[in-house]
Amino acid sequence: MRTALVCGAGGFIGGHLVKRLKKEGFWVRGVDLKQHEYTQLPTDDFVIGDLTDISVVNKVLDQPFDELYQLAADMGGAGYLFGGENDANVMHNSGVINLNIAKRATEMGVKKLFYSSSACMYPAYNQEDPDNPKCAENSAYPAAPDSEYGWEKLFSERLYCAFHRNYGLNVKVARFHNVFGIEGTWNGGKEKAPAAMCRKVAEVEDGGTIEVWGDGLQTRSFLYVDECLEGVRRLMDADFMGPVNIGSEEMISINGLAQLVAEVAGKKIHIKNIPGPMGVRGRNSDNALIKEKLGWAPSKPLREGIEKTYYWINEQVKLQKAEVKLNKSLYNEVSIGSCSLQDSCR
Length: 346
Ligand code: GKE
Known about the structure:
It contains 10 helices and 13 strands.
């Protein structure tokens, strides 16, 4: 039986990956700081542990796994990554995790290692025109990512490639372009734009107003998680190590994304553009290389993924409202109860 270690299994993409690997017949160990928040994972073994701690890495990486998927990172959406206040933690935590894993995977003779880099490593100067961003793989240098998150991703790509050159570690590197879907972070400050728009639309009344950061004319492309994993699995089986973009080429403005979500929800909305962390002005995947090397590229329309994600987030919003209501009524019962007790004691 093929064995896999998924680092970051308690996260959004890691959780989906565990399910896919189990369906494919792998024996899977997952490791993360926490259990998955939204789903029961079918792992064969799940370790709660902090991968910045080398003793945890040594413990979970105790055999020459056939495949190791390195998805563990201190990450989030624009609100978490581009405000500046998390820069040190993002660089330190993700950097140490990658340093630990590259070394230990080499020592243990891991057969193949996948590293999830990000489109955030591309230079800011190529992403100033929202209608014409350049994100071809060979446009990475001179390096000038617009965030510390992007710099750490670029450093770690280079780290894994150096372990490949010097120690023969078989690495595969992909640059993800804003992956979204069900069972992902949708509130709390780390959510990315697709989840944030779905939540805001789910919470607003028909005809109401939602807030969108920036002028809303900044552009992105978004990739549904299933197609992301299709790309990852194909890359793992290919005779090509990357780095390669795994993203959609269907670019849309952020106001356009909000309107698309509203359409899916069957609501009319007004958009109020407000100041907020913005990131680059425009970003889109360039899929020429993935087509050439893997003979495949993501092709599903954005709307399809948004439909699935909106319905799931709408359910989460309803559940949350129901919980708040229940807590309130429990609180009332308890306080009424204690009140009458006090009264009767007088
Ligand atoms: N998260 C969020 N929440 N973004 C919003 C919101 C909101 O309520 N309103 C507008 N936006 C805008 C942001 O200002 C940004 O310009 C755009 O949506 C996309 O934000 P995002 O989805 O949070 O993150 P980015 O695409 O800028 O960056 C992400 O890139 C990925 C790779 O392409 C990063 O957050 C990484 O998680 C990831 O590697």
